[in-house]
Design brief:
mainly alpha; six-stranded mixed sheet; 6 strands
Length: about 725
C-alpha cells in the first residue's frame, strides 16, 4: 500500500471517529492530510469544523465554515457551539437565526448551547422563545436540553429575586424572514410566557426523563434563591426517584442548614459524606467549614479543614473567613500566613475576609503589609477590598489613610460609604460624617439600616441632639427604615451623654420593641458619668429584670456606690457577684511595636520591661504635675487611702502601654493604643498632658471611640 493510500485511509478513519483526536495539533494535521488526499465535500468539511469546534478553535472553524455555500446542519451546530464556548453569545444566536432563515431545522444537541447564550445575555423573553421553538419541534424530550432549560430558569429566577434581569437586549427574531411559518408562530408567543412557566419545578415536572444533574440544578437554584424548603423537598423527591445525592447535591444543601443554624442536620449530611467518601472533596469540605462556622462550631470547621487531603483556594478562604466571623482573629491571621507558605494565591475574597481581623486587633502594620500585597496583586480597584481597607485604616486609627483610599475609589457602594461615615464618627469628626451622609444621598445611594447607625454614632460623639432627632424621624418617613435595637441604643447613648437622663429613660421605656439589658446599660453608664445614683438604681432594676447576669451593670452599680462613699452597698454588690460567679472583665490595653503586640493589664508587673516602664511613669508624673495635673482619686473605687488610690491610677493599663510605647519607639512617632473598656477620666486628663510634654500624637481607641491626643488636647473635646 502506497503512502498516499495509507494517508487516505487514515483520514477516512479519523473522519469516522473524530473524537479519537486528542490534541489541537492532531486536528490541524488531519486537516492538512484531508486537503492533500480528499476531494471537496460539504459533509467532510462539516466534520472538520466539528473537530475544530471541539478544541474551541474558532478562527479555523470559521475559515472552513465560510468556504461552504450551503452549510449542512453539523456545520451550523459546530459553529454555534464554538461561538458559545468562546463567550461570543450574541454571535452564537445570530448564527442560529441565520440557520433558521435557511429553513434548516435544529436537532436536540444544538439547543443546550443556544440556551446557554440566552442565560449569559440575561434575556428571559429570548430564552422563553427558544423554549417555545424546542416544544414546537418536538425536541423537549432530550435530557440535556431539559437540564439546560432548568439551569436557565433557575438563573433567571435568581436575577429576578435580585432586582430584575437587565441584560443584553438581543432579539432572536431580528432579520428573520416573514415567510418562515415557524418563526411567525414564535413571534406571536413573544409577549407571553411560552407555557406559562413561573418556576423551575414546572420544567422538571414536564421532563420525560431526569437524572442527578436535573435534580441538582433545581436544588442549587432553589437554595441560591433562598427557597430552602423547596430545595429540601426536591432532595426528598430525588431520593424517592432512587437517585443518590452526589457531592454537588450536598454542597448545595449544606448552606441551607448553615442558614438555619441547624448543626444536627448538618452533621447528618457530614456523616452521609463520610460514608460515601465525599468528605475528601474540596467543595464538600468548604461547605462543611461554612456550615459549622455559621453554627458557631469553629472547632469543627478547623477539624474538617485539617482532614482535607487537598486544599484549594476555596477551602483556605472558607476557613479564614470562618475564624474571622467567629472572632478567632489570631487564628485567622495564622491561617492566612500558612496559605501564603503553601503557595496558594490569595483572591479578592481572601482580603475581604482577613481585613476585619486587622481592624479588630488594630494591627496597623500587618494591615499595611496586606495593602501592599493588594496593590501588587492588582486587587486595589476592587470595590469590596477597597471598602475593607477603608474600614481597616479607620479602625486602626488612621482616618486620613481611610479617607484617602475612599477618595481614590472610582465607584462607591453602600458598604464603602458606611465604612467612611462610621470611621469619621468613631474618630469624633461628626460634621465630616454627616456631610458624607448627605453627599451619599445626593449621589443617589439610598441609606440602609447600618448607615443610620453610623449617623447616630456621629451625632452621639458630638452631642448633636437636634440633628440626631431629625435623622431618627426621617429614616422611616423618607426611607422606610424601621428603627431597630442598634438605632435606639445609639439615640439613648446620645441623650445620656448630653445629660438628658430622664428623656433617655422615657425614650427607652416607649420603644416599640422590648428594651434589652444592653440598651439600659447605655443609660446606666450615663448615670455614672453624670453622678445620678437615684436614676441608676431605677435603671439597674430594669437591667436585672431582663438580664440578671449582666456583669457590667453590677460593676457600674458597685463603683457608683463606692464613689458615693456608700461602702456597705458596694461591698454587698461585690459579695453578690462573687456568690453568683460573676467576674468583672479586667481592664486591658495593647500596643503594637515592631510587629509584636504587647498586652498590659491594670496593675500587671509581668512585662519584662516593667521596671523601666514604672520609672518612665514616675518621670512622666513629675512632668505633668508641673503642667498642673492633679490625680482625680474619685475615679478609683477602692476603700483605701489617697496615696494607694494614686498608685492604682498610676498603674492603669493604658498608662503602662503608653510608657512602653514611649520607651520603645523613636521620638516624634505616633503611639497607638487600644483598650477594651472606656478610658477613665483621670487617664484621659493625664494622657492629654503627656502628649504635650513628650511632643507626640497619642491615639487611644477604647470600646466606644478614638481619642486623638496632641499638644495637651483631645479630639473628643472632653465629651465622651
Amino acid at each position: 500500500m502506497t503512502s498516499s493510500s495509507m494517508a487516505k485511509t487514515l483520514v477516512k478513519t479519523f473522519l469516522k471517529a473524530p473524537h479519537s483526536l486528542k490534541t489541537k495539533i492532531q486536528a490541524k494535521q488531519l486537516h492538512a492530510q484531508f486537503l492533500k488526499t480528499q476531494p471537496y465535500s460539504p459533509s467532510s468539511t462539516s466534520i472538520l469544523i466539528s473537530i475544530y469546534s471541539n478544541f474551541n478553535l474558532l478562527q479555523h472553524s470559521l475559515l472552513l465554515f465560510n468556504s461552504l455555500n450551503s452549510p449542512p446542519l453539523l456545520a451550523w451546530k459546530s459553529i454555534i457551539k464554538c461561538y458559545s464556548s468562546s463567550g461570543l453569545f450574541a454571535n452564537s444566536l445570530t448564527c442560529f437565526i441565520k440557520m433558521r432563515s435557511f429553513g434548516i431545522h435544529p436537532d436536540h444537541t444544538m439547543f443546550p448551547f443556544v440556551i446557554k447564550a440566552c442565560v449569559f445575555l440575561k434575556n428571559l423573553r429570548l430564552g422563553e422563545s427558544i423554549h417555545g421553538c424546542i416544544i414546537r419541534l418536538g425536541l423537549d424530550f432530550d435530557l440535556f436540553t431539559g437540564n439546560a432549560l432548568l439551569n436557565m430558569y433557575a438563573k433567571f429566577q435568581s436575577l429576578q429575586l435580585k432586582g430584575g434581569s437587565k441584560g443584553f437586549a438581543f432579539n432572536v427574531f431580528d432579520g428573520m424572514p416573514k415567510s418562515d411559518e415557524l418563526c411567525g408562530r414564535m413571534t406571536q408567543e413573544r409577549e407571553k410566557s411560552v407555557i406559562g412557566l413561573d418556576s423551575v419545578t414546572k420544567v422538571l415536572e414536564m421532563m420525560p426523563q431526569r437524572d442527578v444533574v436535573s435534580y441538582n440544578t433545581v436544588i442549587a437554584g432553589n437554595a441560591q434563591n433562598g427557597l430552602y424548603e423547596e430545595a429540601l423537598r426536591m432532595v426528598r423527591e430525588m431520593g424517592n426517584a432512587d437517585m443518590k445525592p452526589d457531592s454537588f447535591t450536598l454542597s448545595s444543601v449544606l448552606p441551607i442548614f448553615a442558614e438555619y443554624v441547624d448543626v444536627m442536620k448538618g452533621k447528618e449530611i457530614h456523616g452521609y459524606a463520610i460514608r460515601h467518601l465525599f468528605d475528601s472533596d474540596c467543595y464538600i469540605g468548604s461547605s462543611l467549614i461554612d456550615m459549622y462556622a455559621n453554627c458557631a462550631r469553629i472547632e469543627d470547621s478547623c477539624r474538617v479543614f485539617s482532614l482535607l487531603p487537598k486544599r484549594d483556594d476555596i477551602s483556605w478562604n472558607s476557613i479564614i473567613a470562618a475564624c474571622v466571623q467567629n472572632g478567632v482573629f489570631d487564628e485567622g491571621l495564622k491561617l492566612f500566613r500558612r496559605m501564603l507558605t503553601a503557595k496558594v494565591k490569595p483572591r479578592d475574597v481572601t482580603f475581604s475576609s482577613i481585613m476585619p481581623a486587622c481592624a479588630y486587633l488594630t494591627t496597623l502594620h500587618l494591615g499595611k503589609q496586606l495593602h501592599g500585597y493588594i496593590i501588587r496583586g492588582g486587587f486595589d480597584d476592587n470595590v469590596f477590598i477597597a471598602s475593607s481597607l477603608v474600614d481597616m485604616y479607620a479602625k486602626c486609627g488612621n482616618i486620613k489613610a481611610a479617607r484617602w483610599i475612599f477618595d481614590q475609589m472610582e465607584h462607591h457602594d453602600m458598604v464603602s460609604w458606611t465604612a467612611i461615615i462610621m470611621g469619621h464618627a468613631l474618630h469624633g469628626h461628626a460634621h465630616d460624617a454627616l456631610s458624607l451622609f448627605k453627599q451619599m444621598e445626593k449621589d443617589g445611594v439610598k441609606p440602609n439600616y447600618v448607615s443610620y447607625i453610623a449617623v447616630f454614632t456621629a451625632c452621639s460623639h458630638a452631642g448633636l441632639t437636634d440633628e440626631a432627632w431629625r435623622f431618627f424621624n426621617g429614616m422611616s418617613q423618607n426611607h422606610g427604615i424601621k428603627p431597630g435595637l442598634e438605632h435606639y441604643t445609639a439615640m439613648a447613648d446620645l441623650l445620656g451623654r448630653a445629660g438628658k437622663l430622664n428623656e433617655a429613660y422615657e425614650f427607652i421605656s416607649s420603644m416599640h420593641i422590648a428594651p434589652t439589658g444592653s440598651i439600659w446599660s447605655t443609660l446606666l453608664s450615663a448615670c455614672r458619668i453624670h453622678k445620678n445614683l437615684k436614676l441608676a438604681e431605677k435603671v439597674a432594676k430594669e437591667i436585672f429584670k431582663v438580664d440578671p447576669e449582666n456583669v457590667g451593670a453590677y460593676v457600674l452599680m458597685s463603683n457608683m456606690y463606692a464613689a458615693s462613699r456608700r461602702w456597705k452597698e458596694a461591698t454587698k454588690m461585690r459579695i453578690f457577684m462573687k456568690k453568683k460567679g460573676i467576674r468583672k472583665e479586667p481592664a486591658c490595653s495593647w500596643i503594637e511595636v515592631k510587629n509584636t503586640v504587647h498586652t498590659f493589664i491594670s496593675g500587671d508587673k509581668s512585662h519584662p520591661l516593667y521596671d523601666r516602664i514604672f520609672q518612665a511613669l514616675k518621670d512622666l508624673l513629675e512632668q505633668i504635675e508641673r503642667e498642673g495635673y492633679i490625680p482625680d482619686t474619685n475615679e478609683d473605687f477602692h476603700d483605701v487611702d489617697e496615696e494607694q488610690k494614686k498608685y492604682l491610677l498610676f498603674s492603669h493599663s493604658e498608662r503602662l502601654a503608653l510608657a512602653f510605647g514611649i520607651l520603645s519607639t523613636p521620638a516624634g512617632t505616633t503611639i497607638r493604643i487600644t483598650k477594651n473598656i472606656r478610658v477613665c477620666v483621670d487617664c484621659h486628663t493625664a494622657i492629654k498632658l503627656i502628649s504635650k510634654v513628650v511632643q507626640r500624637e497619642i491615639i487611644v481607641r477604647d470600646n466606644s471611640r478614638f481619642h486623638h491626643f496632641k499638644d495637651g488636647k483631645c479630639s473628643c473635646r472632653d465629651y465622651w
